[in-house]
Amino acid sequence: MTTTREDPSTSPAPTDEKHHISFHGWHRHPGVRSGDGLSLGERAADKMRNSMGSWFFVFAALIFLGIWMAANNNTGFDKYPFILLNLVLSCLAALQGAILLIAAKRSDQVASELAQHDYDADCRSRELLETLMVEFATLKQQHEELHQHMDRVMTSLDCHPHSNVTAQETS
User: Fold this and answer.
1) pLDDT value at position 31?
2) DSSP state of 96
3) Cβ(82)–Cβ(64) under 8 Å?
4) Chain mean position to CA 18
5) pLDDT band at 37 (very low <50, low <70, confident <90, very high)
6) How many Å apart are CA 71 and CA 79, to the nearest integer?
7) Neighbours of 51 (CB within 10 A)
8) Rounded distance, CA 4 to CA 60, Å?
9) Binning pLDDT at 50, 70 and 90, where does residue 130 land?
10) Which residue has the higher pLDDT, 57 or 148?
11) Cα–Cα distance between 75 and 5 in angstroms, integer?
């Protein structure tokens, strides 16, 4: 199953859970390069990791081996003990080790990009919090000053709720 990635700014948000899982979450993360931002080798490493590390690959390999052994049991070009098959599997194992290392390196790169994005977001949040704390302290101080000013005005007017009503009624 091949899944194509689209530009996140033009594609709609995933609506069903199956579609969301097929992208493994981090492909659309703003802190991780994907799509055209990746080199050919990085895209290949992602595809190989996603295909070789799947149950589909395991079952396809088992079916291939079963068909090979059944077709070449006593009459095929690679009769038992399947020397050609052993050679192919040995070469595959040698290449698969290198491919897995490449895929692991790419996974580390993705984890590093995610961690850097999280760190940058935390730093921006901290700066915003510090700014808000300073502004809140300023507002608190202004509120206190206004409260004190209102107390002075009220004291100077000797204002009581009943005296206002009486002063208005007499006029």
Assistant:
1) 67
2) H
3) no
4) 17
5) confident
6) 9
7) 13
8) 22
9) very high
10) 148
11) 46
